[in-house]
DNA sequence: TTTACTGCAAACTATTTGCAACTCA
DNA sequence: TGAGTTGCAAATAGTTTGCAGTAAA
């Protein structure tokens, strides 16, 4: 997984620097959908002189290569996820937690979209919104109709 | 369509100001996925004193109500789309064009995601990436393998 | 050796906020 | 009437960039 991604860098004649290796390793081994700031802080012991700009540049590079994808969860910054196996995300509209979901396979949607739109399709990104189990408990929500009495900034809750 | 949305504002006891009506009308009648700046400029003749902050605030309000959704197409700002009927988007990774697609219905994915994740699901957002017909022509791309020789910042193109 | 990369700080820019004036209900 | 809304300007904050020094290949 890591080796493959490093090979991918080499294939593109992109230098494999310690910073890139360490950031990539971090992403491969952490499935917590970190923000730039989180990555920066978590790596400061390993790479004391690491620059925030380098984290930005590196993530952008990985995104362009398709190794990593960008996610938004409603808070300020952008979050990142190693995309070794196709999947999509469910985002909690209350706490911002992001959960990976590996089913169903949505590649058929790409085919359908290509047919209808005439685009040459290269990929997709699916985000499902809702309330995570913890927030459901904390807020006393057990069914969709309960959402109506909440003052949350929940989209789609009419 | 417009009337329904205005009724929705009233239901939420949100004031129907001229700014809100005009911005809403603009969104209902324009399917060009405008940015904040585009909306602001297009409305300056109708509302000479309109503030950019008001456009931001109004759009945020509409998004929170689920009337409008936010989109990213790779350029700096955020784009907006009146969401009167569920659909998703195909985004051109070269020129940033956004195209609406109304099939297939993806509500089954919400059900599946809810089952797997335990979330109480309230909505979803699907984005498909690719090259629009115009850019395919302009770039001389006719099949997926042609993407490899391009120097575009296309994700997923390995 | 050489060219790409890093780190730092400054610059940039999309978005938010404070507040006084205003206005819809 | 008065609570919610607008407009303006200033503030904020995430991200990018310029450049000199550094290091991977």
How does this model look, in words?
2 copies of one chain form a homodimer. With 158 residues, the first copy, chain A, is α+β, with helices and mostly antiparallel strands. Chain A has 2 domains: 1-82, Winged helix-like DNA-binding domain superfamily/Winged helix DNA-binding domain (Arc Repressor Mutant, subunit A), CATH 1.10.10.10; 88-149, 2-Layer Sandwich (Dna Ligase, domain 1), CATH 3.30.1490.190. Helix content of chain A is 39%, strand content 18%. In chain A, the strands form 2 sheets. In chain A, strands 4-3-5 form a 3-stranded mixed β-sheet. A two-stranded antiparallel ribbon of chain A has the order 1-2. In chain A, strand 1 (68-71) and strand 2 form a beta hairpin. The longest helix of chain A has 14 residues, at 52-65. Chain A is flat, with a radius of gyration of 18 Å. Chain A starts with a helix and ends in a 19-residue tail after the last helix. Residues 153-158 of chain A have low confidence and may be disordered. Chains A and B meet through helix 4, strand 3, helix 5 and strand 5 of A and helix 4, strand 3, helix 5 and strand 5 of B. Strand 5 of chain A pairs antiparallel with strand 5 of chain B. Chain B binds a DNA duplex (25 and 25 nucleotides) through helix 4. Chains A, B: InterPro entries: FUR, Fur_C, WH-like_DNA-bd_sf, WH_DNA-bd_sf. Chains A, B: GO terms for molecular function: DNA-binding transcription factor activity; transcription cis-regulatory region binding; zinc ion binding. Chains A, B: One of its GO terms (biological process) is regulation of secondary metabolite biosynthetic process.
